């Protein structure tokens, strides 16, 4: 943007000088008039070159600034076109027509046409150069976008590959977890059976002990009552 501002200042100075000389030429005559016309033609060339430089500078700007500066450049182009149109008017001929000398008038008109033709050719060349520069910039932008797209595509493929690896590892972990759950389920089943077996065994032991206890009580009671019965039968 600093360079563009510098071009703007130079362009403003050139257009001011062109305007000044255009106002001065009608009052001149002879070689001095011809010299001023050639100087103005040179100033027009320099102004067109500055327009081209500003256009190239705009192509390098950020997209959010490009439109703002492009509008300013369009205004400068229109201003230069108006000055060019003014410069082509007969009052800015190399010399004022002399009715007494038609041959001299024709020569001077040819000189003026040569100067204007040269200016038009320069303007056309600058315009073509500017179009080529814009096309080159568009091609460079296209290549840059293609490279960025390729880079983004590469990152996406890499991310997809990483996601695939993560999914594969997750699936392996799920399989391992499922296998662990199956082993745990079998272990729990075995432990449950053992607990039931131990419970049944414990109940059986307790039942046996209770039975033995009652049998023992019965036997003790019976043994205690048997002598009494014998003694009572023999007084």
UniProtKB/TrEMBL annotation:
InterPro entries for the chain: GOSR2/Membrin/Bos1 (IPR027027), SNARE (IPR010989), T_SNARE_dom (IPR000727), v-SNARE_N_sf (IPR038407), Vesicle_trsprt_v-SNARE_N (IPR007705)
Spans traversing the lipid bilayer: 200-220
Gene Ontology cellular component annotations, sorted alphabetically: cytosol; endoplasmic reticulum membrane; ER to Golgi transport vesicle membrane; Golgi membrane; late endosome membrane; SNARE complex
Domain T-SNARE coiled-coil homology: 124-191
Keywords: Coiled coil, Golgi apparatus, Membrane, Protein transport, Transmembrane, Transmembrane helix, Transport
Subcellular location: Endomembrane system; Golgi apparatus membrane
Bilayer topology annotation: Single-pass type IV membrane protein; Single-pass membrane protein
GO biological process: Golgi to vacuole transport; intra-Golgi vesicle-mediated transport; intracellular protein transport; macroautophagy; retrograde transport, endosome to Golgi; vesicle fusion with Golgi apparatus
Pfam families referenced in this protein's UniProt entry, alphabetically: V-SNARE (PF05008), V-SNARE_C (PF12352)
Keyword Flavoprotein in record: no
GO molecular function: SNAP receptor activity; SNARE binding
Subunit field text: Interacts with distinct SNARE complexes that contain either STX5 or STX6. Interacts with NAPA and, to a lesser extent, with NAPG. Identified in a complex containing STX6, STX12, VAMP4 and VTI1A.
Family note: Belongs to the VTI1 family.
Name of the protein in its database record: Vesicle transport through interaction with t-SNAREs homolog 1A
Species lineage: Eukaryota, Metazoa, Spiralia, Lophotrochozoa, Platyhelminthes
